Amino acid sequence: MNLISIPALRDNYIWLLQNDLQECIIVDPGESGPVFAALAERQLTPKAILLTHHHHDHVDGVPELLTRFDLPVYGPQETADKGASHIVGEGDSINLLDTTFFVLSLPGHTLGHIGFYSAPYLFCGDTVFSAGCGRLFEGTPKQMFESFQKVKKLPLETLLCCAHEYTLANLAFAKSIMPQYDEITAYEREIKQLRAKNQASVPTTLHLEGKINLFLRCHDIDLQNKLDPYHTLHEEWRIFALLREKKDLF
């Protein structure tokens, strides 16, 4: 399989996953133009569209794509009016490109947000970002925490194919909270060099995120002591909630 990231809108990524037969799936097409260009340039034939949630920057390209291609569109119930023809949820599996994709319920950013997993790829939409976490527009901190725990159980080599270029901003926040974490400071230098060349910072690996993503480290005693020095928060999801609140204000 060949993973292709297509920059779109202001800071989105649309994902293509391509097999050896020049066939591909399209994930979260927030606009159609860049997808048409990528398909033509690479001479690819799309076979399906996958949607993680209903926000316009993930679905607005669907109608125009469907005017040119007769494709099944898989998404959660909240995308039924955004072009989804096949509604899927937790525990469902989809066979595409001779590959099985497992559907994970990942509420938090939206209530019906899902992810699509086929090792090593996780198309996680706006749930997990490199060094960060999606904003809570509809769900609760506890829901998002539980979604992170679900992702955390996947193999460490999992490639997190998130949908925005937020890495530098997330690292700046992480460094403001835990400046003593050398991994975060070193990775920020690396990503600054990468972005100076206009290269994407994602996908990232779950293994790396376990080191630099504070939202995956709510079990960390040092982080807990920093956020809750008087130890009034007795559950990890409450540490997560406080961290998300601080990010909202950062």
Please summarize what this structure is.
This protein is α/β, with parallel strands linked by helices. It contains nine helices and 14 strands.
Please outline the helices and strands.
Layout: E1 2-8, E2 12-18, E3 23-27, H1 33-42, E4 45-50, H2 56-59, H3 62-68, E5 73-75, E6 86-87, E7 93-96, E8 99-105, E9 114-118, E10 121-125, E11 128-129, E12 132-133, H4 141-152, E13 159-162, H5 167-177, H6 182-196, E14 204-205, H7 206-212, H8 221-227, H9 236-249
Parallel strand pairs: 3-4, 4-5, 5-6, 10-13
Antiparallel strand pairs: 1-2, 2-3, 7-8, 8-9, 9-10, 11-12, 13-14
Helix pairs in contact: 4-9, 5-6
Characterize the largest beta sheet: strand count, sense, and whether it forms a barrel.
6 strands, mixed
Percent range for helical residues?
25-40%
What string, H for helix and E for strand, traces the elements in order?
A: EEEHEHHEEEEEEEEHEHHEHHH
Alpha-beta classification: alpha/beta
State the total count of DSSP E strands: 14
Measured between the Cα atoms of the first and last residue, the distance is: 38 Å
Output the radius of gyration: 18 Å
Strand content: 15-25%
Mean pLDDT: 96
Overall morphology: globular
Strand order in the largest sheet:
1-2-3-4-5-6
By DSSP (H or I, 4+ residues per run), the number of helices equals: 9
Contiguous runs where pLDDT drops below 50 for at least 5 residues: none
